[in-house]
Amino acid sequence: MSAVVPAVGQVLVLVAVLALAVPLLGRHLARTYTSADHLGIERVAYRALRLDPDADQHWRTYALSVLGFSLVGILALQALGRLQQHLPFSLGFGALPADGAWNTAVSFVTNTNWQWYSGEAALGHLAQASGLTVQNFVSAASGMAVAAAFARALARSEAGGRIGNFWTDLVRGVVRVLLPVALVSAVLLVLLGVVQNLHAPRVVSTLTGGEQSVTGGPVASQEAIKELGTNGGGFYNANSAHPFENPTPLSNLLEIGLMLLVPLAMAWAFGLIVGDRRQGAAVLGAMGGLFLVGVTLLTWAEMAGPGTVPEAAGGALEGKELRFGTAGSALFAAATTGTSTGAVNAMHDSLTAPGGGVAMFGMLLGEVSPGGVGSGLYGMLVLAVVTVFVAGLMVGRTPEYLGKKIGQREIVLVAGYVLTTPFLVLVGTAVALSVPAGLAGLQEDGPHGLSEALYAVASASNNNGSAFGGLTSGTPFWNTLLGVCMLLGRFLPMVLVLALAGRFATAKRLPAGAGTLPTHRPLFVVLLVGVALVVVGLTFVPVLVLGPIVESLS
Amino acid sequence: MRDLLTLLRQSLAGLRVLLAATLLVGVAYPLAVTGIAQAVSPWRANGSLVTADGDRTTDPGEAVGSALLGQGVDDAGLFQPRPSAAGDGWDPLATAGSNLGPESPELLALVEERRTEVAAREGVDPADVPPDALTASASGLDPHVSQEYAALQVPRVAAAQGLAEDEVRALVAEHTSGRTLGVLGEPHVDVLGLNIAVLGAAGEGD
Does B66 fall in a domain? Predict the structure, then answer.
């Protein structure tokens, strides 16, 4: 019993902190994405960049802005990787291989942060700070922009498909939200022990006369935005398990809180943007409910420690850090796979079979528990549309969501969204398991090997970025496959969401009538959670049975 | 066609925005954090280095390691850390866990091998070896061991250093941290700090 009390206690501390922070940030986010006023520094930037911040973009232009910006980001990051040897602070590292540079560029621009390389052995400080950190900010701000545009579209009536301005949303997301919070968090992390310097590794002579290279780098600045932007790419290979990235139990809680903060606050902001706080609370409730179920199952799995090796060792401590313990590792694992972060403070490949299965399920849910900074909200809103549609079919009412009629065109877009990632995950895994180049990457045989492949493709397609690290993914085959999955898994859903936003912004917002299904009541929240579970469950049960479930039973 | 032109125009705008963002969050932000960190807490910002006397330092030349990083202990008379899968062990240039799964035969063999080794080293029943002594950490740089593993090692270290077991036990307690706020993490013992203290106590006795 004694270990259960702190395991529950840490969740209560987390919930208490978020209960204070989420509404505050939510209000700030709603103002950020609806205010007509520009800050002084923003005006200067718009003038210098020759942008019209007040141009109300048609959804199609908005989508092309997102795509154009991401395209440029990928090309720039790829160039940085290929030319690293000519840059200052490269620490003597050479160019990344072509397939590796492609994978990394796509990975950071799509907010996935899948890492085939090991940070301390492949990338210099400049590539990390001026390449990867930049994308950590702007890829997160892009996702938030799309979610905000979707919320605004629902609030508008007969706006002719116009949903706002991407550049304004992007700049505001960085300047008003991400940068200030990241700056404060980075300083807090330094005070807890995270390093922040520009040193190359420095050799010290250890207590018993050995040698150890103490690594350096601008770690705290990257760590803060890596969690806040639900990015997840570690400065070092060990990611947030590394004592220089996550030195204490307190820094661990701070990092977990940062991952959950923006996705939850965006749900709160959504309620304010559509002018009905209860709608935001309902979405928040569904996200939070799913998250707490994930935390409970994962914590139970890791603390009970089923499986041959955990039982032989007397506890599931392989791949875990003692300062976090099993509960602190399980909470982090649930947060990182429930959001689309993908940072790890324990090695997921060594989680117990049910624990690893829950982590995988969190990603397969499509990252809505609570999901990425932006993708969490728009993912959940798409599921809300599915829910009113299903409910409408059951009772024979015309489905509508927030006064917008859900017709055939809307449902086609929603179906496209819901099918994209399962298609990528299942086809991608099947391809990987059918060719020798795919199989060559697996560390283990049998169900655990399947789990390694499935986890990797699910992680890439859902833009999570965590891994069953036993997989050797730094090969041309895996780099290319996962790069394609990340790219399509990010931008197809985004374009579909923006198209849906365009339809909603065009439609008239009808007043709620007697036949309207209320979408703010607990009943709707339960329905929404049920739809999320059923849609994903039906899609992935067969492959989950062959992987983590068989392994749990063996 | 019109879409293609729009994409091109938006990409050019994107390039301008990316350059501006790089200056702001790719250069100014990390440098600002570095400046603040070096001013506010230079010891932590530079890796929490400690000397052989246990004092804080920022000079790697006089340091014996980082208070945050586990290191290999090549002395049978000192406290031993957990197994490490980072490179050849404790290598910050190759941080990693084993990534072996819960049903891995290879990991099972490793666990049994470590159990035999530790039991022989400490002269205890193999069943008494705690799990953290049998499993590699996530980073390969875990600086801590459990209270159980530390307690197991007390008699050996005390004998090797010519110290009373109670004295060593007191040092272990001194270097043990409980759960933060009573709920965060698990109690853990700082191996490097403890070994420095043990060597200090043994030196005084001579």
Answer: no
A41 and chain B in contact, CB less than 8 A? no
- Residue A1 is predicted with a pLDDT of 45
Residue B177 falls inside a structural domain: yes
ipTM of the complex in this document? 0.96
User: Domain range holding B13?
Assistant: 2-40
CA distance to A357, B37, B102, B184, per residue, from B51 (Å) = 44, 21, 39, 29
- Nearest CB to B64 within list A174, A196, A207: A207
Listed by number, the residues of chain A in 315-354 with a beta carbon closer than 8 Å to a beta carbon of chain B are 315-329, 344-347, 349-353
What pLDDT, in 10s, does the model give residues A202-242?
A: 999 999 999 999 999 999 999 999 999 999 999 999 999 99
Is residue B186 in a domain?
yes
pTM for the whole structure: 0.96
C-alpha distance from A294 to closest chain B C-alpha (Å): 19
Sign of CA dihedral A378, A379, A380, A385: positive
**B35 and B75 fall within a common domain:** no
Tokens standing for residue A109: 């621009």
B206 pLDDT band (50/70/90 cuts)?
Answer: low
Residue B104 touches partner A, C-beta closer than 8 Å: yes
DSSP three-state, residue B197: helix
Number of domains composing chain B: 2
Cis peptide preceding A522, ω within 30 of 0: no
Residue B45 belongs to a domain: no
pLDDT digits (tens, 9 = 90+) for A415-433: 999 999 999 999 999 999 9
Most B CBs within 10 Å, among A133, A196, A199, A245, to test the B interface: A196
B89 shares its domain with B178: yes
Residues of B in contact with A353 (CB under 8 A): 101-103
Shared-domain flag, residues B144 and B201:
yes
pLDDT at A51 over 50: yes
